[in-house]
């Protein structure tokens, strides 16, 4: 039976939220994830479209020098925006490397933050799992070579949001309609609670925007995705780094990783190992190696321990190299 078409006024956020409360189902923005789940039979709707909602597109400067980005801004728009590229390069770079050009043209900032995981058991309508209200995680005893390498949650599939990882390094905040702003990290919690969801936002709550703080003068950023093939592949591990230097000494470091846990991870141990030290190859390698202590691999994810360390080292080297090059010129 075809769901009744959504006729809610897309400019009325309260009406949109009330429609989801009354009808159930999900909000839909760019539709890249909801459409895929609908086609596979995992999500039946009904879907309440928010793409025409007022104030959810584009960027606006904030009085404190920060930037407000509407939740319906596409990944392609973020990657190409000169203001974002200049002031918040880690976000622009992450948006430009995510998914494929076609998905970046349709996928939105909010949709990327609130998407569902890519577990093939979850996305099979004939398989029961924790994410669909079942009693267990079939990936744990089945094929989980794309699974987590850290964390003790019942579900073992990593969160897929590349932009959440990048936003963690900026201490960004999200705006929620009819709620107080919260940190991006607060969308996900510690991961242990996420056995039936990939974020903590109720279905009827609308993420309206992301707020970035003012840029850090002289910062350099890098992101890297380790994949099993060159194009159109979800990362096995990915990382983002922001560094600032005073001469050769690291004065600021913000590092995060994805593909390794149920939530995107900020890596304070890496940051602490860098700040106040010279950014030598040895120091970068030692900082990257600190992530090994948090790894508790599953039988099929042992390879991710080394890959996690190496991916973090790659972004640190890229960011430090970009800083050195900028100082030389």
UniProtKB/TrEMBL annotation:
Coiled coil: none
Domain of life: Bacteria
Domain FAD-binding PCMH-type, first and last residues per copy: 1-217
Pfam families to which the protein is assigned, alphabetical: CO_deh_flav_C (PF03450), FAD_binding_5 (PF00941)
InterPro entries: CO_DH_flav_C, CO_DH_flav_C_dom_sf, Diverse_Substr_Oxidored, FAD-bd_PCMH, FAD-bd_PCMH-like_sf, FAD-bd_PCMH_sub2, Mopterin_DH_FAD-bd
Protein's recorded name: Oxidoreductase
């Amino acid at each position: 039976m075809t769901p009744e078409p959504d006729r809610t006024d897309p400019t009325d956020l309260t009406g949109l939220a009330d429609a989801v409360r009354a009808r159930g189902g999900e909000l839909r923005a760019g539709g890249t994830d909801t459409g895929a789940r609908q086609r596979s039979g995992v999500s039946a709707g009904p879907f309440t479209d928010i793409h025409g909602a007022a104030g959810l597109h584009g960027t606006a400067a904030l009085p404190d020098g920060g930037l407000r980005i509407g939740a319906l801004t596409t990944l392609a728009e973020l990657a190409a925006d000169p203001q974002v590229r200049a002031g918040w390069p880690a976000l622009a770079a992450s948006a430009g490397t995510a998914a494929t050009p076609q998905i970046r043209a349709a996928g939105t900032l909010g949709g990327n933050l609130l998407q569902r995981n890519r577990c093939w058991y979850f996305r099979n309508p004939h398989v029961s799992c924790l994410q669909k209200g079942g009693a267990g995680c079939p990936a744990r005893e089945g094929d989980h070579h794309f699974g987590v390498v850290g964390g003790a949650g019942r579900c073992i599939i990593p969160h897929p949001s590349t932009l959440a990882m990048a936003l963690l390094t900026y201490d960004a905040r999200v705006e929620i309609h009819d709620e107080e702003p919260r940190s991006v990290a607060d969308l996900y919690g510690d991961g242990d609670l996420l056995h039936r969801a990939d974020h903590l936002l109720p279905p009827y709550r609308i993420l309206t925007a992301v707020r970035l703080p003012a840029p850090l003068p002289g910062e350099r950023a890098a992101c890297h995705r380790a994949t099993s093939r060159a194009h159109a592949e979800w990362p096995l591990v990915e990382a983002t780094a922001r560094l600032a230097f005073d001469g050769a000494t690291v004065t600021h470091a913000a590092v995060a990783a994805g593909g390794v846990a149920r939530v995107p991870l900020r890596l304070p141990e890496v940051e602490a190992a860098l700040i106040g030290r010279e950014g030598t190859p040895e120091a970068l390698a030692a900082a990257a190696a600190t992530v090994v202590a948090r790894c508790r691999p599953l039988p099929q994810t042992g390879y991710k321990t080394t890959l996690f360390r190496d991916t973090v080292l790659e972004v640190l080297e890229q960011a430090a190299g970009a800083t050195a090059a900028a100082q030389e010129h």
